[in-house]
Design goal:
- This protein folds into 4 domains: about 80 residues, Glucose permease domain IIB (Gyrase A, domain 2, 2-Layer Sandwich), CATH 3.30.1360.60; about 180 residues, no CATH class; about 170 residues, no CATH class; about 160 residues, Glucose Permease (Domain IIA) (Distorted Sandwich), CATH 2.70.70.10.
- Helix content is about 50%, strand content about 15%.
- It has 21 helices and 20 strands.
- The chain has an 8-stranded antiparallel β-sheet with strand order 15-11-12-13-17-9-8-19.
- Strand 11 and strand 12 form a beta hairpin.
- Helix 7 packs across helix 10, helix 8 crosses helix 11 and helix 17 packs antiparallel against helix 18.
- InterPro entries: Dup_hybrid_motif, Glu_permease_IIB, PTrfase_EIIB_Cys, PTS_EIIA_1_perm, PTS_EIIC, PTS_EIIC_1, PTS_IIABC_b_glu, PTS_IIB_1.
- It comes from Sporolactobacillus putidus.
- It is a multi-pass membrane protein.
Length: about 625
Amino acid sequence: MSESLGKKILNLVGGENNINTITHCATRLRMTLKDNNKVKKNILENTSGILSIVEKGGQFQVVIGPNVPSVYDDLITETHLGEGSNSTSYKSNGNILTKVFDTIAGIFTPLLPLLAGSGVLRGLVLLFTQVGWLSDTSGTYHILTAASTSVFYFLPILLAFTTAKKFGANLYVSAAIMGALIMPEFTNIMGSHGNGVITHFFGLPIVTMTYTSTVIPAILAIWCQSYLEKFLKKHIYENLQLLFVPLTSLFLMVPVTAGLFGPFGVYTGEGIANVINWLIQSNGWIAGMLIGGVWNVFVIFGLQWAVNPIMITDISTLGFDKIVPLTAAANFGMAGATLGTFLKTKNKKTKSYTMSALLSIFFAGITEPAIYGVAVRYKRPLIGAIIGGAAGGAFIGGMQTKAFAFVFGGLTTLPAFVGSTFVYYVIGLAICFVVGAIATMILGFDENSGETADKNAKMVESTPLTIKQQFIDAPVSGKISKLSASSDPAFADGSMGSGFVVSPSDGNIYAPVSGVVKMLFPTHHAIGIQSDNGTEIMIHIGINTMELNGKYFESHVTQGARVQKGQLLITFDLDSIKKAGYDISTPVIVTNTQDYKDVQLLKTGIQSHGTTVMEALIE
């Protein structure tokens, strides 16, 4: 069995013990080494998959290209290199609200597939039990129940792990901290009295709580743990860190979490959930109309991440939730608007895209393709989706419909809603779908509103495509130069693909093509887009700007989002980055150049963003 690229690189740079720190940016591994003489540089440079080697500013850089995240993950597997301060943690930029949503998204995103899969399995178990196919006293029932609900019982440990990755703390120490609070040794303190029993830690009173299925305590605790680790590593001699950092972390953080973060998180989470559920209980019709109508707008701005933990908490503690059905109402309102667009349009390409977006909602409960590719693009379908979601959401909320698992609303997740209110859920979804479709067809839309209006785009659209071709716009205003003018040799030599370099005159990056965001680096200094024609384009703002850890950068899109040509992607503080001493020249690379017969730079010199400056051709 051949050795993987990551392991080859690890061995050729002298192994784990020769690496002080390792991170990666959008294109390369960045290492500081203890002894550069141990590196087998000649072999590295001739290793398949490695584009070039750069030694600069005390860093040893291995240039790989867009595949660098998977190589990095492979390299650090079975090592201690990805833990603590050596991880690729970062500081997000933007206002406080943006940072909060970005943090919550980063913590919960890795768990969403598990939550969705567990939710469907739980729904099937409930369905089979209710129709008599499965006895609730059988071993099969109990095993499947354990399989479908274990994610919620051990949720604090799973969240500790993902939170540690987000904040750069030791993954395993973090998991152990929250694991201590759900051990029988801890829960036995409460006996049969439940939450609120007072115990003492070296004389200090601690209110004991049940932490299984909780959300907020783990996030707060590991956030604090990340700072404690950095402090300890700064003040404990390096040779002693292996023992004393975990020891001190466990000794301090378990009682601090039990005494402070735990009760605060439990009571806060319960309070928020109680308020929202009180609104639904008081007037489900109005609450359902508001949530069903506005949820798709929440998704556009990423606000849904603030509510998801509440739904998960309800499922975990109550066994059901009334907000999840309302988010499904929004999904089917969007599905109806997408169908309405399909029926209304005469454009074959639009019909094809809307059908794929509709299937994404039906089979996966994923609305982003429809939201960004249809609703936002054509404007009025978004209004139709809001009307549909509000109409059906009012019915679903008014009938106090329940979900018994945290899932995304689609046809495949129907079992998660099986119960006494299931029929109301199905009727509500039908209302959302039909009303959304009819409203969109009545409102209509201007298909030209989704296209870039500048004269260059019109010229491109009017050109008949006799061969596959992709026109690429300048993503930022400024001076366009050949790629060879880049100050970074890894870009200048073209090893990562053909392209050009821009010296920006402002701090706004726009989409050079219509497509999907395939890569958005956490520090927001680099973004990759795959166009509808399959062209893969990477925009790297500045040279070595990853070192700013996201400072001066703000993203206006998320990874996986669909974007339209000319849409604002990223803003950055041009002057501040220059003052910090960084070269702000911005390479724009076609990373799959090898798939094309020719990639031509059409224009150089001063150009405005949106001007077509490059063409990729393939027979």
